[in-house]
């Protein structure tokens, strides 16, 4: 971290009262877990929790083999016996303490953040934490700004909570700040202002977009001016493979960007950030973590206490054994190799997409520089035909083609309509390139070409 970092001030805990849902305000801390820290006091005899006797646990040791990212050699790792015993028992809601400390150090270093009012909590994947965050922040009819298109699973949570969704337009560089500003400037008088903006800023799912630094600064300035939070869902942060330097995260920017003297409150604490190890260590370990204002993260923890007590400390111990040995340099070296793999996959997929669809004018797209998705627009009407000038949005919609005709041809993808917050037709399709090899990619694009040509009336297409 730079020694030249300036002093930053955090918003007070009372600021977040208006971001608490009725359910969050009604939820009380667990009367048992609230007393867990007292058990660590010297000479304390605990009759508190119904913890199982550890002698009944059959696990005596745990070791695994993993590749060293700096040497590419396989190495043996053993979980420290004391750490293993700790991880097999009930523990703190926020996560295995040593693992939480490691993550806090990572966030401090990677995002250049002093410890000014934020903390980390670990969940069963970032989706688990996002779900809980929305439940603790929003009541029915509360307003959320949400980029369009947006991750479909997040929409299922938002819709289940009856949150009012305001779509923010995007292009090949993600959220368009000028469009967001117009939405806010023209906000109906008397209507509650939005509580938060939800965005996936790197390799956005589904659009694969990465928001440039200049736009991020504009969006952060709008959050300060119009007093809303930024929900930074960032599972693809470490899957950035662009040629330009990776833009700073919103979590980093809010500490480095200041608008002092403009009448705008530049105190930090408007970003609630979600990270995931699913894309870089293991999806099955189900490790995600939230970083943000202690008041907001604390409410998420209270929800966890009543929902599932804690995430798996056993997987935390495995990750900690690995990461403690690697150190931050080793972890970052590993993520760099992961991102380069996805760059190769992106290039392979894009080459096949261009060969079978792009060169024939059957699809257009923007090249992603992060993540594992390509978001492409199918051109279902021949531009040279008379039908092209009179076709309706519904006729250009990809949903039926992808859900029926493509499946009949042996190819599965997601139609773009499932990613539109308030629904509606769209010619876009989301395709994942993460698992494909070159031969399979070629065959997939060959089949999709046939589907599009037949949709244009070329029944003889092969």
From TrEMBL:
GO terms for molecular function: pyridoxal phosphate binding; transaminase activity. Belongs to the class-I pyridoxal-phosphate-dependent aminotransferase family. This is Pyridoxal phosphate-dependent transferase. It holds the Pfam family Aminotran_1_2. InterPro entries: Aminotransferase_I/II_large, Class-I_PLP-dep_aminotransf, PyrdxlP-dep_Trfase, PyrdxlP-dep_Trfase_major. One of its GO terms (biological process) is alpha-amino acid metabolic process. Its cofactor is pyridoxal 5'-phosphate. Transmembrane segments: none annotated. Gene3D superfamilies: Type I PLP-dependent aspartate aminotransferase-like (Major domain) (3.40.640.10). It comes from Pterulicium gracile. Keywords: Aminotransferase, Pyridoxal phosphate, Transferase. It comes from the Eukaryota. Signal peptide: none annotated. Residues 89-448 form the Aminotransferase class I/classII large domain.
């Amino acid at each position: 971290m730079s020694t030249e970092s300036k002093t930053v001030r955090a918003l007070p805990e009372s600021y977040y009262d208006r971001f608490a849902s009725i359910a969050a305000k009604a939820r009380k801390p667990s009367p048992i877990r609230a007393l867990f820290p007292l058990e660590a006091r010297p000479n304390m005899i605990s009759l508190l929790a119904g913890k199982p006797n550890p002698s009944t646990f059959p696990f005596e040791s745990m070791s695994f083999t993993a590749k060293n990212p700096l040497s590419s050699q396989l190495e043996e790792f053993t979980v420290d016996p004391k750490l293993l015993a700790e991880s097999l028992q009930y523990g703190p809601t926020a996560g295995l303490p040593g693992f939480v400390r490691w993550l806090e150090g990572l966030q401090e270093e990677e995002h250049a953040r002093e410890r000014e009012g934020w903390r980390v909590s670990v969940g069963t994947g970032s989706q688990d934490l996002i779900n809980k965050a929305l439940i603790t922040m929003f009541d029915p009819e509360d307003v959320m700004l949400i980029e369009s298109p947006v991750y479909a699973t997040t929409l299922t949570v938002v819709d289940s909570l009856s949150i009012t969704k305001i779509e923010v337009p995007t292009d090949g560089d993600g959220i368009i700040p000028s469009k967001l500003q117009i939405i806010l400037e023209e906000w109906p008088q008397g209507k509650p202002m939005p509580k938060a903006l939800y965005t996936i800023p790197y390799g956005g799912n589904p659009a694969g977009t990465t928001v440039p630094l200049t736009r991020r600064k504009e969006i952060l300035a709008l959050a300060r001016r119009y007093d809303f939070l930024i929900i930074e869902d960032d599972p693809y942060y470490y899957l950035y493979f662009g040629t330009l330097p990776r833009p700073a995260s919103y979590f980093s920017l809010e500490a480095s960007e200041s608008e002092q003297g403009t009448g705008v409150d530049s105190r930090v604490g408007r970003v609630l950030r979600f990270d995931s190890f699913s894309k870089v260590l293991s999806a099955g370990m189900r490790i995600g973590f939230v970083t943000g204002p202690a008041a907001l993260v604390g409410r998420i923890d209270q929800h966890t206490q009543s929902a599932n007590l804690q995430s798996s400390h056993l997987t935390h111990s495995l990750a900690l054994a690995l990461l403690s040995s690697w150190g931050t340099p080793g972890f970052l070296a590993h993520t760099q190799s992961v991102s380069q793999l996805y760059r190769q996959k992106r290039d392979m997929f894009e080459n096949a997409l261009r060969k079978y669809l792009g060169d024939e004018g059957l699809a257009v797209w923007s090249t992603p520089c992060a993540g594992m998705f390509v978001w492409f627009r199918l051109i279902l009407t021949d531009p040279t035909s008379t039908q092209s000038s009179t076709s309706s949005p519904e006729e250009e919609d990809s949903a039926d083609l992808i859900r029926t005709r493509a499946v009949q041809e042996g190819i599965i993808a997601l139609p773009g309509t499932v990613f539109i917050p308030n629904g509606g037709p769209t010619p876009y399709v989301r395709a994942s390139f993460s698992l494909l090899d070159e031969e399979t990619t070629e065959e997939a694009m060959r089949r999709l070409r046939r589907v599009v040509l037949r949709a244009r009336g070329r029944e003889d297409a092969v």
